[in-house]
Amino acid sequence: MWSVIFRLLARFLGGAGRATAQVARFGRVAFTGLIKNRALNTLTQQEVRNAFAKVGLREAHNSHFISRLISRGPQFGINTLDDFARALSNGTAQAGRQAGTIEIVLPNGRAAIVVKEATGDLITFLPL
Q1: What pairs with residue 21 in β-bridges?
Q2: Run of H or E residues at 101
Q3: What's the average model confidence in pLDDT over 43-61?
Q4: Which of 4, 64, 107, 108 suits 24 as a labelling partner, its CA being 20 to 30 A distant?
Q5: What does the alpha-carbon distance between residue 46 and residue 100 come to, in Å, rounded to a whole number?
Q6: How would DSSP label each residue in 61-93?
Q7: DSSP letter at 39?
Q8: Residue 108 clears pLDDT 90, i.e. is over it
Q9: Does the pLDDT of residue 67 top 90, yes or no?
Q10: Consecutive H or E run containing 123
Q11: Using the 8-state DSSP alphabet, how is residue 45 labeled?
Q12: Which H/E stretch holds residue 47?
């Protein structure tokens, strides 16, 4: 599902430089079960990876998204998977700094989620 969303985003953004679009227009992420409210620092990377798989999200091959989310998330207001889903759904997409990527800027504007444009795989979570 997310790969289709990001392909649509890529087509929408095209070569327009830093054009933006609300990610919420393309769908919402909603984790289920007790894991969605557990603190990120109490979850293993495999637990997060499994929760992502259930909602159609995937970490890119050889990336470090989940470890960055667990370590950096709390300083940007992302303490649980539910917080992450809310930030992802309410973020603003823009063309990435590197070719073939899209950055989803969190609503607070202090961090971004970098995504592979072609596949929708999550690459990293970085401060702005």
Answers
A1: 93
A2: strand 101-105
A3: 91
A4: 64
A5: 27
A6: TT--HHHHHHHHGGGGT--BHHHHHHHHHH-EE
A7: B
A8: no
A9: yes
A10: strand 122-127
A11: H
A12: helix 45-54
